[in-house]
Amino acid sequence: MRKFLPFISILFFFSCVKNTDSSGNGNAVLDHAVGVPGVTKSEKKKCLDSVFDIIAGTELFKEQNQAATDAGATFGLQLEESPFPDRDNPLSKEPVNHYQVRLYSDMETHRSVVTRLRYMPETKKLLEYNVVDDAWDTEVEFNAALLKEVEMACL
User: Fold this and answer.
1) Cβ pair 147, 125 in contact under 8 A
2) Which of 36, 32, 129, 154 is CA-nearest to residue 85?
3) Is the Cβ–Cβ distance between 44 and 149 less than 8 Å?
4) Do residues 74 and 68 lie in contact, with contact meaning Cβ atoms separated by under 8 Å?
5) CATH 3.10.450 for domain 5-153
6) 60-71: burial string, b at 16+ Cβ within 10 Å, e else
7) Between residues 117 and 87, the one the model is more confident about
8) By C-alpha distance, which of 127, 146, 145 is closest to 137?
9) Is residue 114 helix, strand or coil?
10) Which letter does DSSP use for residue 130 in this model?
11) Which residues contact 104 (CB under 8 A, 6 or more apart)?
């Protein structure tokens, strides 16, 4: 076990490094291409990137990002489900008809899921999970101009 302690410490350090954009103002970094097999930054914008852009442009995302930043936390997105699990590498490996993302806040001592969002490509709706009613019944407004970008990237 002692042999692995330095390795685990290094992994822990890099997992806790605060990711910010180049302005250094604490904005969440949406670098979803990193770690996904076969995806490089130089490629044409991917479908998943376009879906993340829709989410990152919502007032909900901006407010939660600002609140996390003000509290000294890191804010981010994690893909839970995707219609293309082999390509997008979500947490769940079962294909579904939507993209489901968790928004989380990383504090020094723990990670908290702030909310979950689901983008429905067929209906072009972004829904927020309602924990109390256990339902996807809260529609989230987003920049409709980004739908064209999603359609082009997701062909």
Assistant:
1) no
2) 36
3) no
4) yes
5) yes
6) bbeebbeebbee
7) 117
8) 127
9) strand
10) E
11) 75, 76, 77, 78, 111, 112, 113, 114
Reported as a single tens digit per residue, the pLDDT across 33-76 is: 333 334 344 344 688 999 999 999 999 999 999 999 998 898 89
Structure tokens at 97: 């008809």
- The encoded tokens of residue 79 equal 């893909």
CB 19 within 8 A of CB 62: no
Closest CA to 146 of 39, 41, 49, 67: 49
Amino acid at residue number 38: G
pTM above 0.85, yes or no: no
Torsion angle (degrees, nearest 10) of CA 24, 30, 32, 33:
-60
Average pLDDT over residues 19-23: 40
Beta pairing class for 74-81 and 125-130: unpaired
**The two structure tokens encoding residue 82:** 């995707």
The residue behind tokens 């504090």 is 107
